[in-house]
Amino acid sequence: MGKSERLFQLVNLLKGRRLAITAKALAERLGVSERTIYRDIQHLQSSGVPIEGEAGIGYLIADYPLPPMMFTYDELTALLLGSKMVDAWTDTQLGANAKSAIAKIEAVLPHHLKQQHDHSPFLVSSYHHGPQQQAFSAQLRTAIEAKDVVLLHYQDAELRQTQRIVEPLGLVYWGGKWTLVAFCQLRHDYREFRLDRILNVESAGQRFTCHAQKNLSHYVALVKAKYAALAAEGRDGADCDSSPA
Fold it and tell me: Which top-rank group of organisms is this from (predicted)?
């Protein structure tokens, strides 16, 4: 571990603690000597990091806003990969925000990290994620945040067109398609709707509320329980129709 990464880890270990941590404990966590910890703390203190404490007692960082610290290469890889996924697989508004984040991250990359990033083995393809996949994403995100009931004009796998009044709860990416998870007012239950099969979205002029038995986390818990039960029966769910409405 290099010095800059060690200093970063040291700050993370110290900040937000209610009780002081000793140099010995810090040395064991970081795999270095106590002497190195003392030198690092002096270096951070001289740089303006508000570390409180003393040898033999322990150290912590006061409740003080710290400047951004440099990310490790692996952390930058994760951030950039996630931003590229957002850019490729979501709507144009989120994509623009992702591009802006990528530009800001790349602008401050040290030269050696920039070279590593240029040779990253990860590629995010936007194939199969065209305008039809993204058409209603921004509109539905807004409805979810505002808890607005919407009228969906929808076409199912058999090309039958229907209309549903639903309470939109979340957008879920299943590794190939985006779906809207919603509470259907007709069926009085959760339903999934593939974004690439939505023909139009209109506001129903109503608001809805969530509760313990009607929210995205509850839906996810039900899905997990369903597949846990299938696994317990020795089935992998392949014979269970899990396709969205």
Answer: Bacteria
Please check whether residues 139 and 103 belong to one and the same domain: no
- CATH code at 13? 1.10.10.10
Determine, yes or no, domain membership for 244: no
How many structural domains is the chain composed of? 3
- For residue 154, give the DSSP letter: E
Dihedral of the CA atoms 198, 202, 207, 211 (nearest 10)?
0
pTM across the whole model: 0.63
Mark whether 171 and 220 lie in a shared domain. yes
Structural domain boundaries, residue 30:
3-61
The three-class DSSP label of residue 84 is helix
One-letter amino acid at 196 equals D
Chain centre to alpha carbon of residue 221: 18
Cα–Cα distance, 204 to 182 (Å, whole number): 14
State the pLDDT at residue 81.
87
- How far apart CA 10 and CA 25 sit, in angstroms, is 11
Give residue 180's pLDDT.
95
